[in-house]
Amino acid sequence: MAAPTGPEPSPDCSICTRLHDFIAAWRVKEPGWHNAPVPTFLPAGGVASVQLLVVGLAPGLRGANRTGRPFTGDYAGDLLYNTLNEFGFSRGTFAARPDDGLELIDTAITNAVRCVPPENKPVGGEISNCRRFLTPTIAQFANLRAIVTLGTIAHQSTVRAFGQPVAKHPFSHGGQSDIGNVRIFSSYHCSRYNTNTGRLTTEMFKGVFGEVSSYLNGIAG
Ligand code: URA
């Protein structure tokens, strides 16, 4: 029987050979970088306080793979953290460094794939391999009520982590889907490509978090 898996891969995880080799090469080129699976960013209140989980795709090479904190150090993080602050899901000043003092409030941020993939593109086998960490990551949050999935890959991997068919919970920007007690809000990924091409505007992205905020406030009564 396979050993039970916790929510975080080991720092030297070698389940995906391609990603392991890619990181090994960057460890040689940039020894000062994180260059390892990027762990879930948790709020100061700990696992039990988490009501909202944001699921991204995978660490960016010069972003989370360099700094070790999801969405920290690349363009996608600027929009994400500004939006979280605006809706009260974080506090402090985001300065794109893991020691900037920014704190999440009842919110956690993770990635569907924990290791940086070449050209930001994980392959299907890597996405399903890494679900063995996404599933227990979600399961550990006993008070989870909402998930924001960023892009189709994060959305589908999250739906599969719940053991549900993706056809029953299709991705669409602004879409919402209930699985048990948890409402999934899907959004186009806040990547530079999506914002530069106009596929995702700041207003569209903030609109999704506005819906999440109303939903969570409604539950709180
Ligand atoms: N950084 C992350 O951690 N995840 C993404 O999906 C993009 C950038």
TrEMBL record:
Q: Which InterPro entries match?
A: UDG_Type-4/5 (IPR051536), UdgB-like (IPR044147), Uracil-DNA_glycosylase-like (IPR005122), Uracil-DNA_glycosylase-like_sf (IPR036895)
Keywords from UniProt, A to Z, are: 4Fe-4S, DNA damage, DNA repair, Hydrolase, Iron, Iron-sulfur, Metal-binding
Tagged with keyword Cell division: no
A single MF term (Gene Ontology) = uracil DNA N-glycosylase activity
Instruction: Enumerate the Pfam families for this protein.
Output: UDG
Sequence ranges assigned to domain Uracil-DNA glycosylase-like in this UniProt record:
43-209
Q: CDD domains of this UniProt entry?
A: UDG-F5_TTUDGB_like
Q: Which SUPFAM superfamilies match?
A: Uracil-DNA glycosylase-like
Task: Choose any GO biological process term that the UniProt entry carries and state it.
Answer: base-excision repair
Annotated family: Belongs to the uracil-DNA glycosylase (UDG) superfamily. Type 5 (UDGb) family.
Q: What is this protein called?
A: Type-5 uracil-DNA glycosylase
